[in-house]
Amino acid sequence: MPELLTHRRLDQPRAPRRIAVSYDPEFFGQISERVARFFGTGKFLFWMTVFVVSWIALNVFAVQYAWDPYPFILLNLAFSTQASYAAPLILLAQNRQDDRDRVSLEEDRARAAQTKADTDYLARELAALRLAVGEVVTRDYLRGELDRLRDELPGLESAAARRRRATDGQAD
């Protein structure tokens, strides 16, 4: 008897015993998308038309095998059952597609924001380079300044010689 008490505490309620059915919602969603995709094809419409025409023909012309006479109540019941399953499956497939579209849209927005940030950065860098290039001495400007200095050089030499003589004369 003491060994029973070691396995289970009597002061706490027992966990309820439940039969749990587990399913993979992704698998169910994938199946519903396949079914919804099939419902939207010409192949489905063709085979459904063949089925309905065969059903009606057998029940109208093969009177001894008529399991569903003229008002075709059983056929209407089959259509109602198909519609009651098809509508939620199609809605589930659309919801899954909406979720994928939402994720894709968020990724596109993030990518667009990153592209805009990169473009803004490159535009600032290009503007800085244009300003820096505007301050760089060009060959034509340098050539013009050298020509001007060459023209002014004889006058500058004579002025410098006069200043030297003047300072030498004052030193004596």
Order of helices and strands: HHHHH
Number of strands: 0
State the share of residues found in helices, binned by percent. Answer: over 70%
The number of helices is 5
Beta-strand percent range: under 5%
Main sheet? none
Structure classification = mainly alpha
Euclidean distance between termini CA atoms: 133 Å
Mean pLDDT: 86
Extract low-pLDDT stretches.
Answer: none
Q: Which term fits the overall shape?
A: elongated
Gyration radius (Cα, Å) is 47 Å
Describe the structure.
This protein is mainly alpha-helical and 172 residues long. The protein has a domain of 114 residues. It contains 5 helices and no strands. The radius of gyration is 47 Å and the shape is elongated. The model has no long low-confidence stretch (mean pLDDT 86). InterPro entries: DUF1003. This is DUF1003 domain-containing protein. Keywords: Membrane, Transmembrane, Transmembrane helix. Pfam families: DUF1003.
